Amino acid sequence: MLSYTPPLKDMRFVLEQVLDAPRMLAAMPAYAEVDTDLMRQVCGEAGRFAADVLFPLNAVGDRAGCRYEQGEVRTPPGFADAYRQYSAAGWPALACAPEHGGQGLPQVLNCVLQEMISSANHGWGMYPGLAHGAYACLAQYGSAELRERYLEKIVSGEWLATMCLTEPQAGSDLGLLRSRAEPAGDGRYAISGAKIFISGGEHDMTANIVHLVLARLPDAAAGSKGISLFLAPKWLPDGARNAIHCTGIEHKMGIRGSATCSMQFDGATGWLVGEPHRGLAAMFVMMNAARLQVAAQGLGIAETAWQNAEAYAHERLQGKAAACPAGQDGGRADPIARHAAVQRLLMTQRAYVEGGRMLAYWTGLALDCAEQHADPAMREQAHGHVSLLTPVLKAMLTEQGFAGASQALQVFGGHGYIAETGIEQYVRDARVAMIYEGSNEIQAVDLLLRKVLADGGARLDDWLALVRATAALERDGELAAPAQALAALAERTQAAVRAIAQAAAAQPALPYRVAPDMLRVTGHCGLAWMWLRAARAAIDGQAQDPAFHDAKRATAGYYFACVLPEVEQLFAVINNCLQQSAGGAGACFYPQGD
Amino acid sequence: MLSYTPPLKDMRFVLEQVLDAPRMLAAMPAYAEVDTDLMRQVCGEAGRFAADVLFPLNAVGDRAGCRYEQGEVRTPPGFADAYRQYSAAGWPALACAPEHGGQGLPQVLNCVLQEMISSANHGWGMYPGLAHGAYACLAQYGSAELRERYLEKIVSGEWLATMCLTEPQAGSDLGLLRSRAEPAGDGRYAISGAKIFISGGEHDMTANIVHLVLARLPDAAAGSKGISLFLAPKWLPDGARNAIHCTGIEHKMGIRGSATCSMQFDGATGWLVGEPHRGLAAMFVMMNAARLQVAAQGLGIAETAWQNAEAYAHERLQGKAAACPAGQDGGRADPIARHAAVQRLLMTQRAYVEGGRMLAYWTGLALDCAEQHADPAMREQAHGHVSLLTPVLKAMLTEQGFAGASQALQVFGGHGYIAETGIEQYVRDARVAMIYEGSNEIQAVDLLLRKVLADGGARLDDWLALVRATAALERDGELAAPAQALAALAERTQAAVRAIAQAAAAQPALPYRVAPDMLRVTGHCGLAWMWLRAARAAIDGQAQDPAFHDAKRATAGYYFACVLPEVEQLFAVINNCLQQSAGGAGACFYPQGD
């Protein structure tokens, strides 16, 4: 049986000691009142809700799954009630603007909330998961009428929202989508088409469901430039049922408590959101918010998996450990946490979870800065950092969600493979996050092609300047070695970008080939940066709570010694691909004649 | 819907062109008649059985699972009938000695059979999975009476066998086991205790089940030196039911068609196998056979996963590929197999599957050599190679079974996460193989501590001499660069072993800490060796079937460019641990004060 303890102390360490969030937020007029106490209070309440209400429903949701019957979907026992508590407590409104009924709290606290929800119950979290993105998209692109009619309902949690993109023939490539929207002449549109993989497309949690749907207008160009975005509610303002129906739900590997729906639109009434044919731009507001949230899912899953593996490793006695000769039972066997191989598994999880949390929250703060900083130049710079790190976090943290859950399962051994233990559900649940909201391969292309090469590396350089500045603070003393490693990594990363940009002129396929490696290299720049800052914060905070801060320093040391070296592999692959490319080989390195 | 095509052409390439198996077997009197035709015939028949009989039951087994009722276990529909066909065709007897009713065919063909069974139906394969190990163990350690009574029944497949080791408190550490065996005075023993995770402990496939059980005699020492091995059948020779009962089956993440039983022994009648208190030595005969078989499971799963991902990637059209501008549909979208990121996923799988097959079959041939070569010195040398590579193959190929299945799922995208597609079952099934028959962490310790450091690296050096000899053949010409990389890798591996051995004197925990890295380094020595040989065979065979051989060379190139660089990460970690160790830090690198 698993447990979940909200990691409040670790979160405080990150927010207060490493990132100095209260001071950063103080530079944003909207968050002038967000002080340390308020942040702690929100984290504490979110943690209580996640641990007390959501976590007990996690295994229930997996076992019961959703039931589909004649267009209706029944969510697992307890799910709808948990949602009522969630919206009653005002969680949907957390980071929404006060003028729309929101609490006006910073995005970084939303990151904390999302992490905890996913730690406790990934499947449940899928239902409210898209509400904030829908809110952001409507707030920015919705007409006054749509904003008036839908924003407050979404902010209050009274209605939930979906994102209807995928069609059977159009997944990663939305340009292939076929759903059509015919103008009715009165400002309304009749939407027709079939959508698949729609999370929360139908359920019994809210009285209405607000669908944001991609479709083509009659005069639309082919491809992604002919796609428009529409809002189509399950129930129309006049109380009539809209022609939108769930035709079935998927039987999935994991997140079985989440209803993944096939949706049929049969001339459903909808309203345009944003400009005609510019639907992808509007949808990307929603998508980018969703991608950061998916990163938090990976993080949350990795946290719970690690917590439980850690606890089990201290309980389970097997074999004498060479590392620590004094057996806890005075005799035959040590806790497996004393065995080096188990320590490697646990420390790798921990280095990614804690490092990933620092980088995710840093990015959450950058998002706040991008939205609310008093200085427009700071807003613009922060926006660049967020756009750079969003794909990195989405891919790295979802990979670690799956890998970390699998590592935790390994610590449990044969018991981990048994359903009742619960950890295998985390492995199954985690797997989907590497696919949805843009597969991790798409994230890699987004990062290298659109975020890095497109501006000649300027945005990356701007961010790496912050990284280098941290390293420069530690020229002497006990952190000199990791600081040097960090500075060298930044240097090598920039050199790799230059070499790729140069080679791409003759070999346009090359950046696509090395994009996955460059994404992880960039991620390690961020993780190493954060671990250096954490080590500094731990040294500075040493006097209070030495054991806690020693553990942070030990994990930082582990990250630099045993996790960061992945970059040696990545750079070697990149260099090999560059060389092959220079030799004229590998224009298409896939065997042709097979 | 998945499919499985036995990779007969690839297998022939490995057996005939890369490994020259017929010539190697000709040096073994027992296999004088095993020529190319016979090998092809066995492979073809095994493939037909796997594809036609076992594969169609794979999803059935996952969906139906096993049913437990009052001590009885019903296997999934079709499983028992498939087993009848399997034993009627003589497959259990394949690599058993003719004097016990076996077919006397080489172990390498057993590797082929095991790979195909696992490709087709991992869950089903668990039932006959331990029969060959039980046969080998009884043939070597059983009394004349036991051999007479049980060997032929096992060889004919009339009875199946189990391995009863694990107890709730004794998993990786068998020294903790508590089951007891009281001598009855007439050569029989009364065995009592509870065993868990017993694959095929109860089922409806055979009339009798032969349990090989570890238990302690009354005068046994504590720990692993006080463990004896017993044979205890479900039905006694006089027709009475033995006091062995299945008390339940596990609900597992995967291999749901396999009955994983809790077994209760209540004074069950058994006979000693081998000497008192030397049970682990006898059990290890069975265990080593099982470990190679588990390696073949990982390989088989990775093969089917890759086949299906490959086929899907050629069907599914999404997006224009930068790599290959000519779209197959003349228009909007290319098959995803033309996208670089998908190619990376597919090629990584392929490099591991084909490379892993070469190394596994090479080890199968070495096992034949160890058992049957005319020259005792050759037998001893081959035995050393098998003992060295068994833990490497078990860990590397089961990791790739899971990673490869997950990579295949990624190629399927959202569709891969849906149960009906079938690939997610392969991910769930594959996961267990990293745990059972000695977790992969145990394999790493077995390799570095027992197989490498224990003899001062002599066995490793002896094997690496073969590796170097291959590299030395390619000093010039188009394979000079990979040959150089291989020679350098062998050199660095030996240097790392020397450094670890030296540091271990002062830091006994160090080898345990770097054991997982050294296992993968050793695995890459083997894979790089095999890919160099494959590239040579492909060049030599080029004239016949150029497309096939070009693909082999392309995959070899991919292995050296994009897979082998993992060793850069591994050596960096090893060096960092050595340095920490030299600095006196990290005697216990796990945070103590947390």
From TrEMBL, chains A, B:
One of its GO terms (molecular function) is flavin adenine dinucleotide binding. Its EC number is 1.3.99.41. It is an enzyme of class 1 (oxidoreductase). Residues 278-444 form the Acyl-CoA dehydrogenase/oxidase C-terminal domain. Its cofactor is FAD. Belongs to the acyl-CoA dehydrogenase family. This is 3-methylmercaptopropionyl-CoA dehydrogenase. It comes from Pseudoduganella rivuli.
